[in-house]
Amino acid sequence: MSNLNSLNMSIAQIRYFIKVVECNSFTKASQQLNMSQSSISKNISSLEQTLELQLFIRENKRIIITEAGIYLYKEFKEAIKKIDQAIDESHILQGGYSNNLTIGGLDAHRPDAFVLPLVKKFKKVYKNISIQVENWSVQDVRHKLIDGELDIIFTVLYDVEQLNKEIFDYKVVAECTLSVGMLETNPLCEKSEITILDLKDSHFVSISPQYTPSYNHLLKEICTSHGFQPKITYYTSSANSLISNLRNNKEVFICDEFYRDYLNKSVCWKPLKGTISGIAVAWKKDNKKKSVRLFIDSINL
């Protein structure tokens, strides 16, 4: 194939291809991109003709990515990431900043509890560093750190402990006990504090291990360490949904005081005796950005 042929493909086509691979479906990709399925299909076919490569095998209503497609997906994904980073860096330079910092927080946590105060304090000292803060689920935040999309993340202690210590480092920002959330009609509300054994006959609302396996692991670990298996009666897709799925006076869920809905008056909250939770800030050891080191050093414990 002549290298000149590659000049006929567009960045948009590459993005469409990446989305189709990740969705494993033309239909789902078109829905997420807010485009017609026929438009996506035509763009992918055009890309295949331009590159003289078969990227997908079409079988009835399903697609199978080829070996060539798998290789191109990995290379295109990295190339698009570098293009986006270059554009972001250019905007930072144009805005008069010397460096940037991307920070990820948890969408189920109160931003005023730790992230915003620390960022505000840092900005006062380092006015020439551009800071972007975005919030996602526990799983998404960790994956974005692993993939290099984020420089620093604030996450729950039980999840940061799952990171590879040879690649990542972390610092504990705050510690507290775990807490139990339940309806006010739950008999356990009469106690001043709750022990883990008090939860033996409770029914747990849990985040699905499909979305946050570390939460499920924590729940099972604290229960089995006291001789019983947690009776999980309902799984949610996110921590934000825990409070909305307490359906009777036997159901409970586990969180801590940094949970966004903590102290919501419609729910009874009790500390869980003998447990430890907390928030940690984590980063990649090989991240050479000066702004990362400056931010970590600015956190006074």
From TrEMBL:
Keywords: DNA-binding, Transcription, Transcription regulation
Gene3D superfamilies associated with the record: Periplasmic binding protein-like II (3.40.190.10), Winged helix-like DNA-binding domain superfamily/Winged helix DNA-binding domain (1.10.10.10)
Any Pfam family the entry gives: LysR_substrate
GO CC terms: protein-DNA complex
Superkingdom: Bacteria
InterPro entries referenced in this protein's UniProt entry, alphabetically: LysR_HTH_N, LysR_subst-bd, WH-like_DNA-bd_sf, WH_DNA-bd_sf
SUPFAM superfamilies reported in the protein's UniProt record: Periplasmic binding protein-like II, Winged helix' DNA-binding domain
Leader peptide range in chain numbering: none
GO molecular function: DNA binding; DNA-binding transcription factor activity
Repeat in keyword set: no
Domain (HTH lysR-type) ranges: 9-66
Family membership noted in the UniProt record: Belongs to the LysR transcriptional regulatory family.
Listed name of the protein: LysR family transcriptional regulator
